[in-house]
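hiii so my PI (J.) wants the whole complex modelled not just the main chain, which honestly fair. so below is everything: two entries, each one labled with what it is. i double checked the lines twice but i was tired so who knows lol
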Amino acid sequence: GAVVSQHPSWVICKSGTSVKIECRSLDFQATTMFWYRQFPKQSLMLMATSNEGSKATYEQGVEKDKFLINHASLTLSTLTVTSAHPEDSSFYICSARDPAGSGGQPQHFGDGTRLSIL
Amino acid sequence: QKEVEQDPGPLSVPEGAIVSLNCTYSNSAFQYFMWYRQYSRKGPELLMYTYSSGNKEDGRFTAQVDKSSKYISLFIRDSQPSDSATYLCAMRWAAGNKLTFGGGTRVLVKP
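here's the output for the full assembly
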């Protein structure tokens, strides 16, 4: 099946540092990728839609200067949490839309990145 | 009221039983319906994917969509302890990109 790889799986860093998370589609070209945030025992909250070669579209309430998204190629999108603080600690998950997927181009998810800010 | 409602559970069943999960939704524009399985500290894994109304079967999994009632279901036959996870329903418009998720149902299959 379609595979989306996310790296790193877990990162711990000090308050004030910036953290970059990578999301790669391994066996298909993804013109559209998505970044989600998930709090414990809650569902996924869409943060932004990342389109290859153009600016990301952020959901209401998500700070675009805080969460920088770059989708420079058809297989790679990155999320950079800038000047991270403890309240940014969360589980971040990316997904990629498979344009060749049967039916309506399903989204496939990475395994998530657990971010802990001390 | 949320666009997609899903009972959070937990739903506890003995091994071998049928697991029955469902979601209701309010937006009749949704055309694509998905079920994802999420293990603890992992990303969601796509299980089933259906378009409009009808049934779809894949191994032990059966997905049903009833658009007239705005109700979707997932059935897991011959449940195994490895099926213990959180199950998320998701749906989107025909021309849309975004998925709207239910809150997830936690399932426990006891040996």
